[in-house]
Amino acid sequence: MPWSKGKHLSSVTKQKLREKALEPENIARSISNLPQGMPGISNPNWRGGKYIKCAFCNEEFWVIPSLLGTAKYCSKDCKNRALNIKGKKNPNWRGGHYKNCEYCDEQFWVTPSTEKKRHYCSLSCRAKGLETFKRLNDDPEFQQKRLKATLKKPNRQEQKLDRLLNRWFPGEWKFVGNGDVILGKLNPDFINCNGEKQILELFGCWWHGCPEHHPEKKINWQDTEIGRGVIYSRYGFKTLIIWEHELEDEQAVVEKITRFNQALTK
Hints:
Elements: H1 11-21, H2 24-32, E1 50-53, E2 60-63, H3 76-83, E3 97-100, E4 107-110, H4 123-129, H5 132-137, H6 140-150, H7 156-168, E5 173-175, E6 190-192, E7 198-203, H8 225-233, E8 238-243, H9 250-265
Parallel strand pairs: 7-8
Antiparallel strand pairs: 1-2, 3-4, 5-6, 6-7
């Protein structure tokens, strides 16, 4: 057996030593044997100093010996307020003036170096003033990139409907809710991939104001059943809306989709 440094004890002996060390009198003895702190002058890192009162707010603050003759204020704010260092009186003054935003007409501060460059008070006003949002909203390529960045994968309810479609209608429907298809600035959830211009939209009860569970919720027209149907019909698509709570009855959803398919074939 190789030699190892230290005294080797059995597990029983180690357990007894642990129990004895945790006894109240032994804990108190260990604490009393700890070295005492060295505050103030007794500390080898002591540099000296004392508390003095701020000349402005009268609050006490600590000053080291090298600043005892010069320190008067506890902070820069107190110094500026006491000496009234504002605007051009401030040694860091760079100049400038107020200017009106060309979009919202609100005043904002510009320095001499940015006076000729800045025409808007914020990036939002700049985008609105230059109609950046309007151009991007009318660009289908940008809309597709934006939706792909935010809708990377189907949520739990969309996954449930996707499994249902693959089980009952294999090869007929494809999930495109990740931004693959953009119609009128909207992204449908499922689209028929057999050549039929059909769309399935899965509506969340809260987000789309379900008439059974959230009839009080106010939503935009394009997020209603009628709105989605009208917008997609402009591109020749027929739309079927499936509500989130309807997924609880799989057979009812299958019958609803079957009736939708049969109505288009007549």
